[in-house]
Amino acid sequence: xxxxxxxxxxxxxxxxxxxxxxxxxxxxxxxxxxxxxxxxxxxxxxxxxxxxxxxxxxxxxxxxxxxxxxxxxxxxxxxxxxxxxxxxxxxxxxxxxxxxxxxxxxxxxxxxxxxxxxxxxxxxxxxxxxxxxxxxxxxxxxxxxxxxxxxxxxxxxxxxxxxxxxxxxxxxxxxxxxxxxxxxxxxxxxxxxxxxxxxxxxxxxxxxxxxxxxxxxxxxxxxxxxxxxxxxxxxxxxxxxxxxxxxxxxxxxxxxxxxxxxxxxxxxxxxxxxxxxxxxxxxxxxxxxxxxxxxxxxxxxxxxxxxxxxxxxxxxxxxxxxxxxxxxxxxxxxxx
Length: 336
What we know:
Distance between the termini: 38 Å
Number of helices: 17
Order of helices and strands: HHHHHHHHHHEEHHHHHHH
Number of strands: 2
Structural class: mainly alpha
Strand order of the largest sheet: 1-2
Radius of gyration: 25 Å
Shape: elongated
Largest sheet: 2 strands, antiparallel
């Protein structure tokens, strides 16, 4: 609690060296609390947000502040003193001076929440979202206030939006995890694990599969197609599909095509009576469900991203937010 109090007061400190010193003190206390066995969400947030060198980046803390940042700074000072109405006045002035200042409506929402005016807080978080729908903070704060008001259904929607905004950072998933605990739901992705392995070296491609899969007739032999498709991307297709990129990377299009081939041919085999749906390998059965739901891209981006695939996320999200939401709602948070 002392660490948190110090960190809040530090945000109002104008002198950069004093501000740095106080943030370092707050971080040290939070780390000590963790060593002693306390590991609350507040401690985790402080250790993540406050840099190890104490140089905290704050919109209102720069020495060359704009008039809007000055107003934001004054709002933070009033907020730290518990003067919420005054804080809101300053934040509103900041927003009027700079209509795209995301932090202004975000902090207004916090002030209204502290005053017990949750409906006003929701309106303010919505204003922040309108400024930048691809930042997760307002969604997280909004969802958190809804959770504390036992509005778990509405909270889930906002926290899903937070994950869609920033799926490759820890905090959105942590907040969604908090919702899951309150809702007694186990978060999870469908288990889709291609069997076998593949390696490509110059002109040589090596693919290894389970020899027993050929006789099982449960679809697991189809993973050969997955590895074959991926090897083609590595050898030549990536260069053709991404001519502006010099080096190969594992891409969303490659992974979806490889999984899609397995799904389509397995589906045809089931339809033609060559395989029985009830006998399908669990990973194959899950793949078919996700593929038939039109959510294969969302699955790959949220359940199986590596550094290469993650680079395709922002472009995909532009026109497919609904599919990302559906995947998170129908699979990750469904508790099935």
